[in-house]
Amino acid sequence: MLNEFKTFMLRGNVIDLAVGVIIGAAFGKIVDSLVNDMLMPVLGLILGRIDFANLYLVLAEGKVAGPHASLDAARKAGAAVFAYGAFLNALVYFLIMGFAIFMLVRGINRLVALNAAPAAPASTEPAAPPEDVVLLREIRDALRAR
């Protein structure tokens, strides 16, 4: 059983998957920081100093009545909130992550296409028939000649 586990863990697919998960998690943190720390503040400034992370709608008041200073304060007060600002952040994050993955796959596909063996140029003369076809033609011609 230990040998089977060792064989399983040392296969290339498992190691590639582990590396992909680790790099994906790190890349996700970079994109998360890009969205939350760089893009959304600029977008909020352009739209009139709106903090997208604190955009919410109170559906039902909690223990402490509003208005609340922030989304966290509303949640701590026990209010049921519709946090559409957090959804907008997640949507921008998803779009950036999707575009980055698209660009990565596109680049890999181009590299694969460059490394692929070039196709042989099409010949103008037809290919020679297989040997069995040639032999059958000779037999046919010999029978006709009799």
Structure description:
With 146 residues, this protein is mostly helical. The chain has one domain: Non-ribosomal Peptide Synthetase Peptidyl Carrier Protein, Chain A (Orthogonal Bundle), CATH 1.10.1200.120. The protein is 66% helix and 5% strand. The protein has a two-stranded antiparallel ribbon. α2 packs across α4. The longest helix has 35 residues.
Brief descriptors of the model:
two-stranded antiparallel ribbon; Non-ribosomal Peptide Synthetase Peptidyl Carrier Protein, Chain A; 146 residues
CATH class: Mainly Alpha
The overall pLDDT, averaged over residues, is 83
Low-confidence stretches: none
Q: Mind telling me the CATH superfamily name?
A: Large-conductance mechanosensitive channel, MscL, domain 1
Overall shape: it is elongated
Question: Which strand order do you get reading across the main beta sheet?
Answer: 1-2
| CATH T-level fold name | Non-ribosomal Peptide Synthetase Peptidyl Carrier Protein, Chain A
Q: What is the helix tally? A: 5
